[in-house]
Amino acid sequence: MKPGERSKLLRNLRQESRRFRLLVVVIGFFLVTLTFIVVTKPEAILFADVGKKPNSDEATSSIVIEERTSVQRLDEIPRVGNPGVDASARDNNEGTEVKGENEDNSPTKIQRNIAIQTKEEERIQLRNTIGPDQFGNNNGNEGSEEKSEDKKEEVKHKVTLPTVSNYTINDSIDTKPDETTSTEVVALQTNEQTEPTLQAKSSTKHLCDFTNFRANVCDMEGEIVIHPNSSSIFFKEPAGSTRDEQWKIRPYPRKGDDFCLSHTSEITVKSTQTPPQCTQYHDVPGIIFSVTGYTGNLFHDFTDVMVPLFTTANQFNGEVKFLISDMMIWWVRKYHRVLEALSNYPVIDFKNDNEVHCFKHVIVGLHAYMEFTIDSKLAPKNYSMVDFNAFMRRAYGLKRDSVTVLGEQPSKKPRLLIISRKRTRTLLNLNEIVEMAKDIGYEVVVNEADVSSRISQMAEVVNSCDVMMGVHGAGLTNCVFLPRNGTLIQIVPWGALDWISRIDFGDPSTQMGLHYMHYSISVEESSLLEEYPRDHEVFRNPVAFHKNGFDFVKKTFMDNQNVRLDVKRFRSVLLEALDHLTP
Questions:
Q1: Among 142, 267, 317, 483, which is 20 to 30 Å from 456 by CA?
Q2: Are 246 and 210 in contact (CB under 8 A)?
Q3: Where does it localize (predicted)?
Q4: Measured CA distances, 359 to 284, 289, 580 (Å)
Q5: Residues 6+ apart with CB under 8 A from 17
Q6: 481 with 392: CB under 8 angstroms?
Q7: How confident is the model at residue 2 (pLDDT cuts 50, 70, 90)?
Q8: pLDDT tens for residues 111-131?
Q9: What one-character DSSP code corresponds to residue 55?
Q10: Percent of the chain as helix, strand, coil, to the nearest 5
């Protein structure tokens, strides 16, 4: 072969080789894209026919279909919530253990789920997902782009908030059904809290509202029959009504947290024209709720029950009856003063009652919003945390409604309460802190708040003080007893826990009308220096540990860390708290 021909052949081979490599790259990219679409949006493949709407026979039970039909508006249709994430971590230093495992779910039905997410719920979702692994800055962006009618929603996933409770939110959010528009929903799958089974069209509002991201609530007015032995509540439909609804609800406000709700009995709410015969009639409304879940931990007693119960029941001015499912006598006795302040009647043990009760108004579940807070825009009568704070003072007969202004009583020093912890997040130099506080003019009270504390005694101690301080933990929940304009100082352990701390106690205390002060300790104030070298990742990049989940963060930065405050640095914080007491 001639030299010129050989050179030409080599050039041709190189060109063919480049073309082949390019073809391989294009095919590879296509296969990767196709695989991604199949894995993330299977409905795009299964129902790709233009203009074709999948029916319930075509859809599998594992696919959530979200679409807009020509007959119904999505904002008129409720949606079945997805089960939440298992295993919720708790701050066990102040609480009791959760017993048992998840209960068996009811038989599964094939189901078509239709949902849409409102702008307000998007705002909440954004707030809860900011930062690496839900940690970091809490300045969430409010809202996002408006969704067009034909735009498909993304498949929604659950969000785990790494709070002191680590509650898990099912953010499969739907919108409130229209009270006047006819709807028809094909129901298919029974979850822990399922949306209604509607066999026919209804011209009235639905019996239950599953639109809140944290709590499902059934608020019914009419002829309601409660049959505790069967854990069923019947709404009597008038003659000629075609409504046929059935809802499954666990009346504890931890929606999506399957581990928590597995310890709460499921109640069935259904419409019927032939309810059981009543044996006892009531002329006041009834509220059904559970006190299992995470109760026994002071923080959860308030964020899961006390605040939601106040929000739901206070509107009735005592003329309401409580029916408690999963009764815990010790808990009812501990908080009997709160229950008696909200209801003029004895509590009914829902599970062990043999009567068939008839009410004209029944609420199943409690209105709940973010942790330890009340959303005044959504709450009945626009209740706020200021109202709750005042209610708690009244319920326990506390003497002080507001703090004592400096100079108002010259002989009286401002009182500082230090919440002391013994097992974790302990103040190692407590005596030094006490002496420093006394030097700048405080009368100091030290108290350890734990699960065995008598709530009435602790309430009196807290109410007698003007300033309360402590390391992040359930004991800070006692700030509900502080007088108006009091100050809460939260000491935040090392570990990028600022956002969690603000959500749990910073925002709630501010909403109560208290002054809130946030003190994040430095590396030198942490006992972790005794376990890790100064250049360890724990100190250089604590946020990186959050990717391992809240259990890991809790074990590393909460359960195994104590605090030795720099009294010189902390002195300025206590001086600033004194300024809050000046006229």
A1: 317
A2: no
A3: Golgi apparatus membrane
A4: 7, 16, 49
A5: none
A6: yes
A7: low
A8: 333 333 444 444 444 444 333
A9: P
A10: 35, 15, 50
Question: Cα separation of 313 and 347, whole Å?
Answer: 13
Beta-bridge partner residues of 358: 225, 281
Query: How many Cβ atoms sit within 10 Å of the Cβ of residue 407?
Result: 10
Give one DSSP letter per residue of 185-227, joined into a string.
-------SS------S-BSS--SEE--SSS--EEEEEEEEEEE
HSE-up of residue 415 (Cα within 13 Å, Cβ side): 19
- Using DSSP's 3-state secondary structure scheme, residue 556 falls into helix
Instruction: Quickly tell me which residue has 């999505």 as its tokens.
Output: 74
In 3D space, the residue among 371, 396, 391 whose CA is nearest the CA of residue 381 turns out to be 391
What are the b/e assignments for 82-114, b being 16+ CB within 10 Å?
A: bbbbebbbbbbbbbeebeeeeeebeeeeebbbb
Residues in the chain: 583
Q: Which of 151-155, 226-230, 402-406, 430-434 has the lowest mean pLDDT?
A: 151-155
- Cβ pair 237, 200 in contact under 8 A: no
Of residues 313, 302, 293, the one with CA closest to residue 379: 313
